């Protein structure tokens, strides 16, 4: 793959957009003190990316998602009432290889391709079971990069900015049209974990005050991320702290760690105990090898979860062993931790409501 370069053009909002939408951005608004508080505050506008001199998988871009169209969203209101908190969920990788359409090769999802949307929504049930129980769940389609893209750091660096461009636009649309001023969680698995990290980096201090928690699952928050964004990426320390980031990723041994998503890692929390300690915990409801207990602990040298007695990972939506070791449990994160995530979301939302508005139930 030949070397490639991005031409990054500085993002901006036109005066017309500012006037018509009352949008406050991170990078502008020099007269903030004299302006009334807007209905919502947008994250920084995504960079406009030129399509010249990029790798062959990025030159041919699918059409940009239009987030005014229902087809570009998966939205689920909480089943038992109107929840007081939202989850903005970033979907993981489901397009396995670069593909050809109309004699052109693409390295990004086409969100208008119904077959690709069906492929991506296979993960919807996992996300809904973990994040849609006591919250409103908003999930945009975006031009996610293919699994093949993750075979090299260079390819990810070249291609992911287009995916992030979509996610930023989707998040701003969500803030304006769906959120209604509620506190929110940002969460994602795998490539969605990377998108979560990048979105949290973009939050202004005002929006950070409304962040209940960020869940980065099956991906890494690097030491560099923590050093460069200390006000936004704050590692969670327990089950009830708010405005923090929970990061975890699971393997069975060191040989199965996949560097592109699991090295280096700056923070980790155990999703069974919601502790950053190194103690071992039993994963309830999961039968291990020969019916024994499955346990999980944070490895002190790697800041990721080491799962014991779980066997090999030969199953998954895509052949995980194609790019990972047989004891890399990347495709098993929700199998192992969904019940714990559900309870933790309830606890953190309640903690947020207790702190910000007095003791209130998570339902209106």
Task: Characterise this structure.
The chain has a 6-stranded mixed sheet, sandwiched between helices. Strands 11-14-13-12 form a 4-stranded mixed sheet, with helices on one face. It has a two-stranded antiparallel sheet with strand order 1-2. It has one domain (8-357). Helices cover 28% and strands 17% of the residues. The chain is an alpha/beta fold and 364 residues long. It has 10 helices and 14 strands. The radius of gyration is 20 Å and the shape is globular. It has helices at 15-21, 56-59, 114-120, 124-131, 153-179, 191-201, 205-208, 223-228, 259-262, 333-357, and strands at 8-9, 48-49, 73-76, 86-90, 99-101, 104-106, 136-140, 184-189, 211-217, 244-248, 250-251, 281-287, 293-298, 305-308.
Count of β-strands: 14
| Total discrete domains | 1
How far is the N terminus from the C terminus? 54 Å
| Poorly predicted segments | 1-40, 46-58, 315-319
Strand arrangement within the widest β-sheet reads 3-7-4-8-9-10
- Class by alpha and beta content: alpha/beta
| Principal-axis shape | globular
Our Rg estimate from Cα atoms comes to 20 Å
The share of residues in extended strands comes to: 15-25%
Overall residue-averaged pLDDT value? 82
Q: How many separate helices?
A: 10
Order of helices and strands: EHEHEEEEHHEHEHHEHEEHEEEH
For the sheet with most strands, the description reads:
6 strands, mixed
Q: Assign a percent range to the helix content.
A: 25-40%
């Amino acid at each position: 793959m030949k070397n490639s370069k991005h031409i990054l053009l500085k993002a901006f909002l036109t005066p017309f957009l500012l006037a018509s939408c009352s949008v406050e951005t991170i990078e502008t608004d020099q007269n903030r003190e004299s302006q009334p508080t807007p209905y919502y505050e947008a994250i920084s506008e995504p960079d406009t990316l030129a399509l010249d001199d990029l790798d062959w998988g990025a030159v041919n871009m699918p059409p940009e998602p239009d987030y005014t169209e229902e087809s570009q969203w998966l939205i689920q209101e909480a089943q038992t009432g109107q929840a007081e908190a939202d989850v903005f969920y970033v979907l993981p990788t489901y397009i396995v290889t670069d593909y050809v359409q109309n004699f052109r090769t693409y390295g990004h999802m086409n969100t208008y391709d119904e077959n690709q949307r069906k492929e991506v929504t296979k993960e919807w049930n996992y996300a809904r079971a973990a994040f849609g129980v006591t919250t409103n769940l908003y999930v945009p389609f975006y031009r996610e990069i293919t699994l093949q893209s993750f075979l090299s750091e260079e390819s990810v660096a070249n291609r992911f900015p287009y995916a992030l461009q979509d996610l930023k636009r989707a998040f701003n649309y969500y803030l304006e049209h769906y959120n209604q001023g509620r506190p929110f969680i940002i969460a994602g698995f795998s490539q969605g974990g990377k998108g979560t990290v990048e979105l949290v980096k973009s939050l202004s201090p005002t929006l950070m005050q409304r962040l209940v928690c960020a869940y980065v699952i099956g991906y890494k928050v690097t030491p560099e991320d923590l050093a460069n964004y200390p006000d936004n990426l704050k590692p969670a320390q327990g089950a009830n702290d708010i405005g923090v980031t929970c990061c975890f990723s699971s393997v069975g041994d060191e040989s199965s760690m996949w560097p592109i998503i699991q090295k280096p890692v700056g923070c980790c929390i155990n999703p069974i105990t919601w502790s950053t300690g190194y103690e071992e915990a039993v994963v309830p409801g999961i039968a291990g090898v020969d019916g024994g207990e499955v346990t999980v602990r944070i490895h002190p040298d790697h800041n990721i979860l080491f799962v014991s007695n779980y066997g090999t990972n030969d199953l998954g939506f895509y052949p995980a062993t194609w790019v990972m070791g047989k004891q890399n449990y990347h495709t098993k994160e929700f199998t192992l931790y969904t019940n714990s995530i559900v309870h933790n979301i309830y606890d953190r939302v309640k903690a947020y409501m207790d702190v910000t508005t007095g003791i209130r139930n998570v339902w209106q």
